Amino acid sequence: MLQSPRRLCSALLHRDAPGLRPRPAPAPRPPARAPPSPAGPRPARPRLLAAAPGAARAGPPTACSMGTGTSRLYSALAKTVNSSSASAHAEYLVSPDLDHLEPIDPKDLLEECRAVLQTRPPRYQRDFVDLRTDCPSSHPPIRVMQWNILAQALGEGKDNFVQCPVEALKWEERKCLILEEILAYQPDILCLQEVDHYFDTFHPLLSRLGYQGTFFPKPWSPCLDVEHNNGPDGCALFFLQNRFKLINSANIRLTAMTLKTNQVAIAQILECKELGRQFCIAVTHLKARTGWERFRSAQGCDLLHNLQNITQGAKIPLIVCGDFNAEPTEEVYKHFASSSLNLSSAYKLLSADGQSEPPYTTWKIRTSGECRHTLDYIWYSKHALSVRAALDLLTEEQIGPNRLPSFNYPSDHLSLVCDFSFNEEPDGLL
User: Fold this and answer.
1) 428 Cβ neighbours under 8 A, 6+ residues apart
2) Are 158 and 222 contacting, i.e. CB atoms less than 8 angstroms apart?
3) Mean pLDDT of the 100-108 span
4) Burial of 136 (0-12, 13-18, 19+ CB in 10 A)
5) Do 229 and 64 form a contact (C-beta atoms < 8 A)?
């Protein structure tokens, strides 16, 4: 017997999932979560967030209590992965068939998230900064969200956020904070890093909200060394199917000095249905840690080389989102800024001179001390695209003395959101 869309939807929130929605006109920030009513019973346990029948992970076997043995298993699987193609990968790259699941209303999903989060403080207000320098476009912008959402296994098992209460990292609530952030800004394209709940949360739910998704895990994810993990983390890319058509997709395993590395990227050519114009969107996550600057630089050069080929020598406009794990002073940043792809960093436009990156995109306290860095970027083809607006960052006061993550914010990295529009079509561009 078929369940109602709402019931199926609700089943997804309780386990981990996403869905289908025509994008409404940009709306103001949703109101803060209302406190629980003093009268009446506590809201029923959410149904959309629970796992719907058939929405379970379709790729690798359930991963739990792993260690070096499982890491070796995934490493062996990863050796079969083609470094440049999205086809015929290891089993865990195959997305489940969710065609039988009906669309869900984002308002219903948001309502369930807020029911789960009702004992937490409300989301912080972040405003869009209007960056237009010309007349308003007659076409709706392309909204792109970049976000390292913090892998659940790493947040609970490896990252040692000493000022973050353990309760703030509980997946049942943290996933609702992540979904609430996505639902609030309604991106047309969503670029995520450190995704270790793709098959059981983000792909099922976002698919039913109208997104098409792609996931590419790290070959040797550190999540696999955490007991009771949910499988490898990796990059995920989602786009709204009612706005874009997928032309081509490539999964890229990055190399450094001819060696294949543990870092990956996804690059897709999309066609904007309203305009018939194509562009390339890419997401990546480069090697972390101090001392690996040359390694990151080599990875960045490899990614630029791949993107040069994919965009036909910059003929196709490009947007690159990522956690580069590199400050603007590093070589990899300079490679992107001086590339023949003619890229510019969107968030520089928020500075007074238009030339400076934000003071931070991540802020955390670990056992080794307090870390405040600018590591996350949205690069774009400045000859073909314009930034119409960018989401301002949280202030130090909003972040608070215990930094990130927290009961208010689910990741140690801030989301970046930009609205793009095409420039007047220059000669030679698709």
Assistant:
1) 315
2) yes
3) 90
4) exposed
5) yes
Q: Assess whether the previous peptide bond of 405 is cis (omega < 30° from 0).
A: yes
What is the full DSSP assignment across 237-292? EEEETTTEEEEEEEEEEEEETTEEEEEEEEEEEEEETTT--EEEEEEEE---STT-
Cβ partners under 8 Å of residue 212, min gap 6: 238, 239, 241, 246
- The answer to whether residues 360 and 372 touch, using CB atoms and an 8 Å cutoff, is yes
* 8 Å CB contact between 146 and 415: yes
Q: Give the containing element (helix H, strand E) for 10.
A: helix 5-13
Residue 331 backbone dihedrals phi, psi, to 5 degrees: -60, -40
pLDDT for res 133: 81
Mean pLDDT of 237-255: 98
* Angle between helices 106-116 and 171-185 in degrees, nearest 10: 140
Residue 428 corresponds to which amino acid?
A: G
CA of 349: how far to CAs of 58, 270, 321, 357, 429, in Å?
A: 42, 25, 16, 8, 24
Tens of pLDDT, residues 108-160: 999 999 999 999 999 888 999 999 887 677 789 999 999 999 999 999 988 88
Q: Encoding tokens for residue 120? A: 């937490």
Measured between alpha carbons, how far is 35 from 118 in angstroms, rounded to an integer?
A: 6
Say if residues 313 and 306 touch (Cβ distance below 8 Å). Answer: no
For residue 213, the cross-strand partners are 238
Handedness of CA 21, 232, 80, 237 (dihedral sign): positive
Quote the tokens at residue 88.
Answer: 């015929």
323-340 residue pLDDT tens:
999 999 999 999 999 999
